[in-house]
Amino acid sequence: MLQAYSERLLATTLKDLVRRGTLDVALPGGRRLNFGDGTAPRASIRFTDARAVLALLLDPDLRLGELFMDERLVVEEGTIYDVLELLLRDADAAPPNAAVRFLDAVRMSMRRFLQNNRPGRARANVAHHYDLDDRLYALFLDRQRQYSCAYFEHPEQDLDMAQLAKQRHIAAKLLVEPGQRVLDIGCGWGGLTRYLVEVAGAGHATGITLSEEQLKGAQALAARTAHPDAYAYRLEDYRATTGKFDRIVSVGMFEHVGVGFHDTFFRKCRELLADDGVMLLHFIGNSDVPDFNNPWIEKYIFPGGHIPSMSEFTPAIERSGLVITDIEVLRLHYARTLRLWRERFLARRSEAVALYDERFARMWEYYLSMAETAFRYQDIAVFQVQLARRQESVPLTRDYIAERKARLRRAEAGAQLPSLDEAGIPASPPTCLPNGA
Q1: What CATH code is assigned to 119-436?
Q2: What is the pLDDT of residues 228-250, one digit of tens each?
Q3: Topology (CATH) of 2-109
């Protein structure tokens, strides 16, 4: 009886969700359901047991990914990306059931507990994701190992050039001048710091990270530049950093701060920033009202993570004494970035299986697919927030951005920017699956 009720509820739910495209569902007892208008994209899934159907209905945000990882939900036609696209692109029109509404309220109330990112916990959270086998990231990232949103100057731009364009865009907004001291909070493998020194002309760049694997990569590459003494990379929490910096940049790190630590973060940045300094903060944000972290992402990918809304981070900036001098919203740039990452990963999926196992490869495919659909069909975007201690530290018009980008583009031709494969760390080739699968 419970199985019959679950199947009826699933049919009602999917009828509301899937309005365009075609989704075919095979139930454990052999019954098949069809949803949508018969057009593309098309996908077919199969539930292997009755409890899988009930689990999905009770907690879809968590269980869909788990069922796919555990092969209790099998994609028989299309890809998991196709399934997610069908489920999410018209999801705003479908009200959640009572169980989902209750879980949403519970998760919202638990945000500060789950994001209690004190130094020890922050280090463990970073290690969970960023200290995976470095060869995994070589499967899908660009040659400079930029693990953040690229900036596409035109739709067909390849990943390496779009990531270079992102660095150029950030450097222009930072207004870097020769000889200046730069701090990169959450420096990754050091690609941006190398650009700011070798191309933009910064005198010294300090990069801090909580990832031991990224630290080793950044140090190895800095040694191969024309100015190896211009870099200092440290395994360090931002709260422990001291000194004064002319420029501060942080890309893809603020999502890991936690909603309860916004004030701490911005007050520290103000303390570190010179009186006439400029800061550029690049991060994933929520363009809707505040929300909780996706529970599947929280459990398997980014524990302690948070996608802040503008109404959450701007009050913390105001309280810190920093001045917002510019905000830019990069809307679909990350969706395109994730599409290219997913294509590259799937082209070398067997290598991920060899590094870990089949379940891990399914988890990573789900992660990249889910993230892309979130940027395409949900209220997720990338914010670039420019900050200063004094409002006169930044020009009054945006003309300077184009002027500086043109200057940086010319400087790139003579710059030495070693890639990870040159340092003995293999990088991902620019592969692409047929038909964008």
Answers
A1: 3.40.50.150
A2: 999 999 999 999 999 999 999 99
A3: Nonspecific Lipid-transfer Protein; Chain A (3.30.1050)
